[in-house]
Amino acid sequence: MLSDSMAQSINSHLNTEHFSAQLYLSMSSAAGVMGFKGAATWFMVQYQEEMAHFMKFYNYLNSQGVLVKFVAADIPNEYHSLLEMFDKTLIHEQHITKAMNHLMDHAVKESDHATQIFLQWFITEQVEEEENDRDIIGKLKLIGDNGYGLLMLDNDLGRRVFVPPPTAA
Ligand code: OFO
User: Fold this and answer.
1) Domain limits of the chain?
2) 2-31 mean pLDDT
3) How far is CA 130 from CA 10, 110, 162, in A?
4) pTM of the predicted model, to two decimals?
């Protein structure tokens, strides 16, 4: 059983995951328009991952008998470079990590063990997400404006494939 306050916090985070999905789909579109087809694929996979995260929260709330409530979001879509997009991705993921930690603190405070177990996967996942973003940002900074380097990195980013998380619906 979820307390009302825990259910509200999880519902709010569910909307953040949905926002993340739309944010990365928007970045996929921007990368494609800039001619970076590989980066467009990378962000499309990121979108798919975020939708899977969102569905995990959705299913968790429904399994606890909680009605999901959606909020509308304004999604940014103006970007000028790949570096800007990946910088913003890292900042966003750091924000998600903090939000996830607050959710866990809330669950610990309420001795809500089921929610703590549910959140554990996300906490671990965030470490990997931030590491991947830092890695790509580092490469982009090394490459700078070198066209050949950007082309090689774009090819590399395009190899990313979506792997559904263990218990995604
Ligand atoms: Fe759902 O982890 Fe990124 O935002």
Assistant:
1) 4-71+79-157
2) 98
3) 22, 28, 17
4) 0.96
- Of 46, 83, 21, 36, whose CA–CA distance to 162 is shortest? 46
* Distance from the alpha carbon of residue 52 to the mean position of ligand 1, in angstroms: 10
Instruction: Give the Cβ contact number of residue 156 at 10 Å.
Output: 14
Asked if residue 20 lies in contact with residue 96, where contact means CB atoms within 8 angstroms, the answer is: yes
Sign of CA dihedral 28, 19, 165, 99: positive
Rounded-to-integer distance, Cα 64 and Cα 168, Å = 16
* CATH number for the segment(s) 4-71+79-157: 1.20.1260.10
Mutate to test the pocket of ligand 1, among 17, 88, 103 (most ligand atoms within 8 A of CB): 17
Question: Which amino acid belongs to residue 120?
Answer: Q
Query: Where residue 40 falls among pLDDT bands split at 50, 70, 90?
Result: very high
